[in-house]
Write a structure and sequence with these properties.
The complex is a heterodimer of chains A (252) and B (199). By secondary structure, chain A is an alpha+beta fold. Chain A is 25% helix and 22% strand. Classes of the chains: A alpha+beta (252), B mainly alpha (199).
């Protein structure tokens, strides 16, 4: 490489006389290539190491997230005219299961003193709650939705939870499974919903019964829930996406 | 021109060098992992929209991008915080950042070197509001239920997303201009002094 001279476009003669003209090491192109190489290596090895990074950071983030979470404080709701009916995208991991709402039963069991099994009619006879909230997906999109149904805390109260219950598992008719911390499950806006935007829930949105809440990401909001199990500890399996590597707490 | 290279070597305080390095690396991690997350559902056009080439995405998949993003955010944000305290305590903010003098120089000065220097100070100072905006909008996306008022301050989710995303091209553009202006006012010696040279 020839020594730098005034024909180098980077060396405007008006410029700083302190320019160091020694050494071919200071060629911007070489610097640029070095930087680009370092960047690509970081992306390559960093992508391979994503599990390690998650394993190290997730417990700390989770501590912080649960620390700032206010279990009793409702999230402000939206007016009815804020609903965005076209924005809620249907996601499922293996399609919509066929469920007969007439024979459907919801079981609540595990660390409870009085396990229960309820029909849709039983659920409709419980106090109805509805809310207009923002549903936020891990993918980045969001939709303002009205959900109507039963507070999960009301259901859990009927089953008389033992003091040892710290986690809640949700099992769905399609094989999907999820687990939540009990504080989030008992939040006043965590619903077992059978209505969406004022109408009966459609099968692809989780009918007859699904989780709905403004405080967790969409993948925590199981559709087609058939069993709710209270547990004192988290098991090896913590959720379909979580077991593949997604964050467990996923609080909003 | 070689004879002129006897002027004092540019020197940076260790604090400035540490801040610059950590900013440089953590911003790279935040931007590349952010682009990985972006690709799960592009801000512009949704799933059928414009995707970023996979080679620029850190993490390999959505969950990996999120792991990197939510790990690096602490380093990135806390680095800005301690340096902000540092420049307040040492009063560096009074003379190390763009001021009216630089604006005046840009408008009336005949001295091209002084003008370049003014541009340089203006550009690196303008990083500050955009990086703070990235953090503010990022908190709103990370915890939209608890910090609902941040989402509200943008008028809604889509505006918040677009704002958060736009801090990426803005930061990349500023960093590119900053590196070129740094060369212009101080040459590679100035660049080296910020990255490597012992002071």
């Amino acid at each position: 490489m020839s020594p730098q001279n005034s024909s180098d476009p980077n060396l405007d003669p008006n410029l700083d006389p302190n320019l160091d003209l020694d050494g071919t090491d200071l060629v911007p192109r070489r610097r640029f290539l070095t930087l680009a190489g370092a960047g690509l290596l970081t992306i390559g090895f960093g992508s391979l190491a994503e599990g390690v990074v998650g394993g190290l950071s997730e417990p700390l983030n989770q501590k912080f997230e649960s620390l700032i979470f206010k279990p009793q404080q409702p999230v402000p709701e939206f007016p009815l005219n804020a609903i965005e009916p076209d924005k809620l995208i249907v996601n499922s991991f293996r399609g919509t299961p066929a469920i007969n709402p007439l024979t459907y039963r919801l079981t609540v069991d595990g660390e409870v003193n009085q396990p229960i099994s309820l029909s849709m009619q039983d659920l409709r006879n419980l106090p109805f709650v509805d809310m207009v909230i923002r549903h936020v997906c891990v993918e980045g999109w969001a939709a303002i939705v009205q959900w109507g149904g039963v507070r999960l805390r009301d259901l859990v109260a009927i089953a008389k939870p033992s003091a040892t219950a710290k986690y809640v598992y949700f099992y769905s008719a399609d094989g999907y499974y999820e687990s939540w911390d009990i504080d989030s499950a008992l939040h006043p806006q965590t619903l077992m919903a059978y209505q969406k935007n004022g109408q009966d829930l459609m099968p692809e949105y989780g009918a007859p019964l699904r989780l709905a809440s403004p405080i967790k990401l969409g993948y925590k909001l199981s559709k087609w829930v058939t069993r709710i199990e209270l547990r004192s500890e988290l098991g090896q399996k913590r959720g379909y996406w979580e077991d593949l590597g997604y964050e467990w707490y996923a609080g909003l | 021109m070689r004879s002129l290279s006897q002027s004092p070597k540019p020197m940076q305080t260790p604090a400035a060098k540490v801040f610059h390095w950590v900013s440089f690396v953590s911003l790279f991690l935040m931007i590349t992992s952010g682009l990985q997350i972006y690709n799960a559902n592009p801000v512009f056009g949704g799933r059928g929209g414009i995707h970023i080439p996979a080679i620029f995405g850190l993490g390999g998949w959505l969950a990996g991008g999120r792991h990197w993003h939510f790990a690096s955010m602490w380093i990135f944000a806390l680095n800005l915080l301690w340096y902000g305290v540092y420049i307040l305590v040492t009063k560096r903010w009074q003379h190390r950042y763009a001021s009216n003098k630089d604006i005046k120089a840009l408008m009336v000065s005949q001295n091209q070197k002084r003008k370049n220097y003014a541009w340089h100070r203006l550009v690196y100072t303008s990083f500050i509001p955009f990086l703070l905006l990235a953090i503010y909008s990022g908190i709103g996306m990370y915890k939209p239920a608890q910090f609902y008022w941040i989402v509200d301050s943008f008028g809604g989710w889509d505006a918040l997303r677009i704002t958060h995303f736009m801090t990426v091209p803005i930061t990349i553009a500023l960093a590119t201009i900053h590196s070129q202006l740094g060369r212009k006012v101080g040459g590679d010696r100035l660049t080296d002094s910020m990255f490597w040279t012992d002071s």
